């Protein structure tokens, strides 16, 4: 296990009715609040009206319509409001897209140049507005980490960024706010949660404690995602997925590990070029990536995954055990009725080469669990057709 620093300073308020504490959460930061959100679901469910009523003593400004793959244009718009209105705190109500965008806005509010500079160079961030969140979708874990992803359609770039100053101060996690998430989004979000865990589970460094935590979290998704898809108002299922989403990427699963991720950089290119749902892209890529990198050096880890996560009995041939685990992963994702080929979501081979090159350059794939070159990424994309 490698040396590590671990500190998560986000205050979590989990459970029913925790929105009631929003006034006391926001009051220490000031009176002017930028309320950020995505589509119209928070208005249809009444959450928007409830929050506005709770915050009646605050001066509220709004930025709605943040995209599922948040775009730099929304960051520009939010930063302009913050500067013009002297905003004190940002309240992000939504899923990872809204929260990611709000993090970029929080930094851009104090930056006089192009906000895209801060996505390219997050170490340039020297100051940021405080952020609080109300989570409405279990997927990205952005409510409890300091990173995000922003898309620039003009340059066809979808890039991750992160800075300790962007860690939310507090996050309200009420599973009831995810009851109205459609089955397709619940399934895609579950695939995203699993991918976050798998990206750090498969690592060249041995670290038993985070790996056993990861296995438990994966088994939780496997147990509860199908229930949440079938029974959208099942509180237990929604609660287990919501907390797993936060723990999957708050750093606890990566303590003592340090490999670059693999599937996320490859997927970022797919959604940068085609604007597909992030979790869907990850579901398509993950089992194909697993099959591509399975070799004599990785087979032991894949066999461990098969046994400890899927309960597969060890076979005489480790490769047989490993492949059974990969098969189980693919069948589980299929059972959630997620599209499992790129052709199903309208992607052709037209941009494979340039997407692969970008994934290697921006995603650090040369440092991944199994290092990948551009030609490897093209091969994996082709396996997904």
Question: Briefly, what is this?
Answer:
48% of the residues lie in helices and 11% in strands.
Q: Helix content range of the residues, please?
A: 40-55%
Low-confidence stretches: none
In the sheet with the most strands, the strands line up as: 1-8-5-4-2-3
Strand content is 5-15%
Mean pLDDT across all amino acids: 95
Q: Biggest sheet, in brief? A: 6 strands, parallel
Number of discrete helical segments = 15
Total number of β-strand segments?
8
Q: Give me the strand/helix succession.
A: EHEHHEHEHHEEEEHHHHHHHHH
Question: Structural class of the helix and strand makeup?
Answer: alpha/beta
Q: What spatial form do the alpha-carbon principal axes imply?
A: globular
Distance between the termini: 38 Å
Rg from C-alpha positions? 20 Å
Folded structure, characterized:
- The chain is built from 15 helices and 8 strands.
- With 385 residues, the chain is of the alpha/beta class.
- A 6-stranded parallel β-sheet has the order 1-8-5-4-2-3. A two-stranded antiparallel ribbon has the order 6-7.
- A hairpin with a 4-residue loop joins β6 and β7.
- It starts with 10 loop residues before the first strand and ends with a helix.
């Amino acid at each position: 296990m490698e040396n590590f620093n671990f500190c998560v300073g986000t205050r979590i308020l989990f459970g029913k009715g925790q929105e009631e504490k929003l006034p006391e959460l926001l009051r220490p930061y000031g009176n002017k609040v930028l309320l950020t959100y995505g589509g119209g679901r928070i208005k249809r469910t009444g959450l928007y009206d409830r929050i506005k009523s709770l915050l009646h003593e605050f001066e509220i400004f709004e930025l709605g319509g943040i995209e599922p793959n948040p775009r730099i244009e929304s960051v520009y718009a939010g930063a302009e409001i913050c500067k013009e209105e002297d905003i004190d705190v940002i309240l992000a109500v939504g899923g990872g897209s809204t929260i990611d965008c709000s993090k970029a806005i929080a930094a851009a509010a104090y930056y006089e140049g192009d906000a895209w500079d801060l996505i390219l160079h997050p170490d340039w961030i020297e100051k940021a507005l405080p952020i609080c969140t109300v989570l409405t979708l279990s997927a990205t874990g952005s409510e409890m980490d300091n990173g995000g992803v922003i898309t620039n359609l003009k340059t066809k770039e979808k890039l991750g960024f992160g800075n300790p100053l962007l860690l939310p101060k507090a996050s309200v996690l009420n599973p009831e706010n995810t009851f109205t998430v459609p089955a397709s989004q619940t399934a895609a979000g579950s695939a995203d949660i699993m991918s976050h865990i798998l990206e750090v589970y498969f690592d060249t460094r041995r670290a038993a404690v985070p790996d056993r935590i990861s296995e438990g979290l994966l088994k939780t998704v496997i147990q509860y995602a199908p229930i949440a898809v079938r029974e959208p108002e099942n509180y237990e299922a929604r609660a287990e997925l919501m907390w797993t989403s936060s723990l999957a990427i708050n750093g606890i699963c990566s303590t003592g590990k340090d490999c670059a991720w693999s599937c996320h950089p490859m997927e970022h290119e797919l959604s940068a070029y085609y604007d597909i749902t992030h979790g869907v892209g990850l579901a398509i890529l993950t089992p194909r990536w697993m099959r591509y990198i399975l070799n004599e050096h990785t087979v032991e880890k894949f066999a461990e995954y098969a046994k400890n996560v899927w309960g597969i009995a060890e076979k005489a041939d480790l490769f047989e055990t490993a492949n059974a685990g990969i098969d189980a992963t693919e069948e589980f994702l299929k059972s959630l009725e997620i599209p499992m080929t790129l052709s199903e979501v309208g992607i052709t081979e037209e941009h494979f080469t340039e997407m692969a090159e970008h994934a290697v350059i921006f995603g650090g794939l040369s440092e991944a669990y199994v290092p990948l070159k551009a030609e490897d990424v093209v091969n994996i994309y082709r396996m997904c057709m």
